[in-house]
Amino acid sequence: MTMHSPLYPWLHGEFARFHALQSQGRMPHALLISGEPGLGQSQLAMRLAQATLCYHPLEDGQACGQCGSCHPFLAGAHPDFSLLSPKDKDSKDDDAAKDKKDSKATDKKDKDIKINAVREFCAGLYLSSSFQHGKVGVIEPADVMTPAAANSLLKTLEEPPAGTLIILVSSQPARLPITIRSRCQRWLVPIPERAAALAWLAQQPQLAGEDPARVLDLAEGRPLAALELAEPERLAQRSRWLESLLHLLRAGGNPLALAASQDKTEWPQLLHWVRLLLVDLIRLQGAAHTPAAAMNLVNRDFADVLAPLAARLNARELFGLYDYLLELSRLINHPLNRELLMEELLIRFQRLGG
Ligand SMILES: [Zn+2]
Description:
Shape: elongated
Number of helices: 16
Number of domains: 2
Radius of gyration: 23 Å
Mean pLDDT: 88
CATH superfamily of the largest domain: P-loop containing nucleotide triphosphate hydrolases
Bound molecules: zinc ion
Distance between the termini: 55 Å
CATH topology of the largest domain: Rossmann fold
Largest sheet: 5 strands, parallel
């Protein structure tokens, strides 16, 4: 399945770095791969793992895909590789089994990584390598480890078994304890160059006639996020949401009802679109005499509505709301207050309209 899918072109730089470090024998024991979501960090982690274990890597350091190590790796059965992720999926099938077991089985639905899982993961790293090519473990997303789990990992990071590589993947590394971060070499996957991202997007069949530049802008330069956005349902959801927001600005609609009617799991996405809308409004305000068409707005399909709106909004409140939104994006993972935060956001949004 993954055997023939090429490395995303914008990750070649990261791979070259790995190759250089490895050939100089300077590869660290632990990496923290971060960057905005939607840049292929998972693929990078898996390719680094496979290449580390490969018997006959290619000249650029990538795994050969054909050796006695690559085969079991690609089949998901390499004895020297382990992947630790929250087990929040396929829990439906065990519902019946779960009822029969004790209440601890409800752990299945958790979105975090618990201490027992980390202990098991670390214990595996201390076993000797079956294929004599070291051991690799990937934790993704690493920022959902509970504090106890992170603490347990710390012990292994402090004294890593020889020949191991631990790769943590996180788009929110600030949520990891600093003690963990300081023991990993930090790799930040950058937003790819626009031309390269556009060229790659244009080749993707899932784009289905959508303008690559438009979806790349809506995803703020992240190619995989752009591809996801290009799904017709996603784009329709965005249009509906923007219509609702603009309705609020024109002093119509009820912010509390609007907040209540949104699917909570979609909130991070909705916030993303509010932010892009604010960015466009701020830019339009700062360039009152430039025609909207010449500004390369992110929401260019709404340019006709946004330009006259921007002219009558209060600049200070607009910036204030933008700051609030940034803070909210950090807090949105706290289930207790996020409903209130979303309501507050929409109330303030409506107030912008005066
Ligand atoms: Zn190989």
